[in-house]
Amino acid sequence: MVVHMPTLYVGVIGDIVRSRQIAPHARSALQRRIGRTLQQINSHFALSLAAKFLITIGDEFQGLLRDPVAIPDLVRELEMNLPNTSLRLGIGRGALYTDLGEYAIGMDGPAWYAARGALEDARASRRFGGVFVGFGPKEDQVLNGMARVLHHVRSRLTMKQRELLEALLQDETQAEIATREGISKQAVSKRARAGGLEAYREAEAAWKLVLAATKQRSPSQE
Predict the structure, then answer these.
(1) 153-156 contacts at long range (C-beta below 8 A, 24 or more positions apart)
(2) Residues 97/106, Cβ–Cβ less than 8 Å
(3) Structural domain contains residue 150
(4) Measured between alpha carbons, how far is residue 143 from residues 28, 135, 148 in Å?
(5) Which residues, listed in sequence order, are joined to residue 88 by a DSSP beta bridge?
(6) Domain limits at 171?
(7) Is 80 exceeded by the pLDDT of residue 23?
(8) Which Pfam families match (predicted)?
(9) In sequence order, which residues have a C-beta less than 8 Å from that of residue 3 and are 6 or more positions away?
């Protein structure tokens, strides 16, 4: 007898810390920026998405992924496009009870329960960089620990260092970056060392390997 395992998805729910305390005109501008960022996310991560991101209530937004390996890149892109904000993210893995739609709205199932629980955990514990639930007991612990450390590093980078990190993660060499920026290779190397960017790149690669391994796990293994 063939047992068909349910398809597992990754729900992502995010919101902005203390957004209700922002002045009305500034909050309106923030919502427009969130909307533009989500359009960009939907374009850049189209192959990894099961349902597109959208704003739901207030400054809360959500989307549904097929491929969890996209999460580190997605988190960085959200942070890069929403500077000077504190972003909470709940990331939950599980099945769906309802059909997929084009946008991540009107759906129900364990993926969303896990993501909502993760967001509430992020609120209660003031944890940033993403809180993971539903990937497996040990996997959740590893993913959450790595998320904390990597966010700690990112939060201390200057904008120039963030831009350099993005280039390195796109596999640009330091020599190529130096040529493009019109600076010396030594200056690029110094900036990378000051931010610990090579160490960050290795750690994020390991983070993605853990996420890739969770794709092989079925609910019965957890």
Answers:
(1) 153/195, 153/196, 153/200, 154/76, 154/79, 154/129, 154/200, 155/128, 156/195
(2) no
(3) no
(4) 34, 9, 9
(5) 15
(6) 156-215
(7) no
(8) SatD (PF16264)
(9) none
Section 128-140 average pLDDT: 95
211 vs 71: CA distance, rounded Å:
8
Angle, helices 159-169 vs 174-181, to 10°: value is 130
Write down the H helix ranges in 98-196. 110-125, 137-154, 159-169, 174-181, 185-195
Q: Is the torsion defined by CA of 157, 158, 162, 164 positive or negative?
A: negative
Whether the model pTM is above 0.70: yes
Check whether 48 has a pLDDT greater than 90: yes
Indicate whether 88 belongs to any domain.
yes
Which secondary-structure segment (H or E) carries 81? helix 71-81
For residue 185, give both structure tokens. 């290779």
pLDDT tens for each residue of 157-177: 998 999 999 999 999 989 999
Task: Report how far residue 47's alpha carbon sits from residue 25's, in angstroms, rounded to the nearest whole number.
Answer: 35
Dump pLDDT digits (tens) for 96-111.
999 999 999 999 999 9
Asked if 144 and 131 count as a contact pair (C-beta separation under 8 A), the reply is yes
Name which of 52-61, 149-158, 210-219 the model is least confident about: 210-219
